[in-house]
Amino acid sequence: MKTIYVENFGGPEVLAIKDLDLPKIKDDEILIKTMAIGVNPVDTYIRSGWYSGSKIPYVPGFDASGIIIEKGPKINDFNVGNRVYCFKSVSGTYAEKIVVKQGQIYKLPDNLSFEEGAAIGTPYGAAYRALFHKGHAKNGQKVLIHGGSGNVGLAAIKLAKSLNMIVVATAGSEEGKGLCKEAGANLVVGHNIEDFKEEILKFINDGFDIIIEMSAHNNLKTDLEFMAMYSAIVIVGSKGEVPINPRNLMSKDARIMGFVLFNAKNDELLDIHRNLFELFISKRMKPPIVGKTFNLRDAKEAHALVERGSYGKVILKPDN
Amino acid sequence: MKTIYVENFGGPEVLAIKDLDLPKIKDDEILIKTMAIGVNPVDTYIRSGWYSGSKIPYVPGFDASGIIIEKGPKINDFNVGNRVYCFKSVSGTYAEKIVVKQGQIYKLPDNLSFEEGAAIGTPYGAAYRALFHKGHAKNGQKVLIHGGSGNVGLAAIKLAKSLNMIVVATAGSEEGKGLCKEAGANLVVGHNIEDFKEEILKFINDGFDIIIEMSAHNNLKTDLEFMAMYSAIVIVGSKGEVPINPRNLMSKDARIMGFVLFNAKNDELLDIHRNLFELFISKRMKPPIVGKTFNLRDAKEAHALVERGSYGKVILKPDN
């Protein structure tokens, strides 16, 4: 079967197509025929060698959707023919077939396409964990999604709106602002702090209950000035140090929380995806926005696009 | 009645003794004959004019203990003759008599002296809130009390030990280290990061579940390196900016929390003092350490001592 295979860390060009033997599943494993694969920024970080724990060679990817074609005798909750999506896998998701364990796959709602399903795992998992497991978001609260036009940001906007929260989002371009509006943000403003500070304070003058922060190294210091009493800043992304004034946290009884989705426990992931299923199937939440689709063999181009900055979910599709 | 009265912000010398009329209580108020008054660092900050919200003239002080001598008709939970201590008051606590509302006073455990009672309000309130309301401390967890020899630090050490936590405390002097040991810390190390880093890592190599931080502007960056998975840094004090690396929070799914005790709601304060009562009366926790005692009229000297750095609780006593 065709896979993408990385033998050395480096630029997008290290994503080579390779024929590997069809993997054999163990008693507690499931084999999926892949229909769509989600490309995430984290895939590009790992490919670059930026993550210290990563090992070569490997098949990249965490997200995908497809149809179950084989299951081990210890699997009771899924059947051959089920439409599913995964977050994490045993074998890597940039492949025509994927081996997963239970706890890595979830039923795909009937009203979502495979492309939409491949867009759920990492971005919706991260957005749900940020808003609810970390920020303890409640109906009617005010939330700032700082960096709203990426896939985690768009998922966070939709999740927040599904709970009638008041959502302010920031984006860097007109196209990004348009996506935030489409996702349901009440107010969308330019990324640059100088631009948006006054605009935000006109709209919300008593601070945000939750700030979802995609770029903490740039914004954390200013975020502290936008906080309401008892509020939370949840950090989804950061690339360096940032000075903060802890007295801002003290006077607001506020908190700064960090997380990576890979630290989430199995029961927490199950909670996330059970709730996402309900939101999608009930149509209380619109499906993910799918952007450009590439053939699996063109993973190089897909990574190059994600690194330049893409709009909507970048998807790979195998030939099968 | 004699009070301490501040007409202008400034050094300890602005704490003048003054005769004021005995205040009249309203229907929902209580009059206390003061037996001991607790001096807190925050009293010196307010006296200096460092707090923007403060107004002159005023009677200083938040903590005191005494005996109820009069109560309004709407007060049901307390009676004349009750031994009580307060946190906050209507009239200021540096006085021979104090007016308080319900929600500002608590019954003094029979086995505590008035001096010990005057040492509870602010320091034990802050330590309890830091450890339990913010840090969600659990039996057997590992806690670093960074700045353990002050009154909040010593209270935090005792509270943590009453729950069988493993406590590492830092202090700047031999006298301070001795107090931390006496309060029950398992390991006491020098304040200076260079000194203690290795010593701590030898004792606890998988990080702390909770760090109680009295000096965030100095230590927050390094604290992040001492954190266990899912841990919390709770900031009790800070005097300036500090650079942090948010990725340290992300990789540990950790949080930084700030608070000031004045933001606590009435039901939260009741919870704190109900639990403190149980801990003191059951002798699961030793009484507060009382340091030097001054006459009320010598409040100047008491503030000067607190500003130099004192050991144990500094107390004022009125003549009555």
Biggest interface and which pair forms it?
A-B, 29 and 29 residues
Q: Which topology of the largest domain in chain A does CATH recognise?
A: Quinone Oxidoreductase, Chain A, domain 1
- Identify the CATH class of the largest domain in chain A: Alpha Beta
Rg of Cα set of chain A: 20 Å
Looking at the structure, what is the overall shape of chain A? globular
Q: Hey, roughly how much beta strand do the residues of chain A contain? A: 25-35%
**CATH superfamily descriptor of the largest domain in chain A:** Medium-chain alcohol dehydrogenases, catalytic domain
Mean pLDDT over all positions of chain A: 95
Query: Span between N and C termini of chain A?
Result: 10 Å
- Unreliable residue stretches of chain A: none
Describe the main β-sheet of chain A briefly.
7 strands, mixed
User: What is the structural class of chain A?
Assistant: alpha/beta
Oligomer, anyone?
A: homodimer
Number of domains of chain A: 2
Give the second-level CATH assignment, the architecture of the largest domain in chain A.
Answer: Alpha-Beta Complex
